[in-house]
Amino acid sequence: MENVRIYTSNVQIDIMDAKNILHQAGINYFEINKMDTAHAGILGGTVDLHVAEGDVEKALKLLADLK
Fold first, then answer.
1. What string of DSSP letters covers 30-46?
2. For the segment 37-61, what is each residue's pLDDT rounded down to a tens digit?
3. Residues 49, 25: contact at Cβ < 8 Å?
């Protein structure tokens, strides 16, 4: 089963909210952090959250209000 990117943000609090929502729903996820840690949120870069294909629909519904 492939993993699908379901959420991207450059705002750390939004990423934390999204991860908490997924965790509370029992959805496994992983993140790819493309931010420069010295300038997080200032000079760009994002954090992407990925889930398994089977969890995409549920995860997108849960995270719809964050977008």
1. EEEE-S-TTSTTTS---
2. 655 556 678 899 999 999 999 999 9
3. no
CA distance 62 to 60: 5
Residue 54's domain comprises: 3-66
Average pLDDT on 15-37 reads 92
Q: Identify the CATH number of the domain in which residue 59 sits.
A: 3.30.70.1530
Which residues pair with residue 36 across a beta bridge?
A: none
């992407």: which residue's tokens? 48
Could you tell me if 15 and 49 are in contact, meaning their C-beta atoms sit under 8 angstroms apart? yes
Cβ neighbour number for residue 44 with a 10 Å cutoff? 11
- The pTM is what? 0.84
The mean pLDDT of the chain is: 89
Structural domains of the chain, count: 1
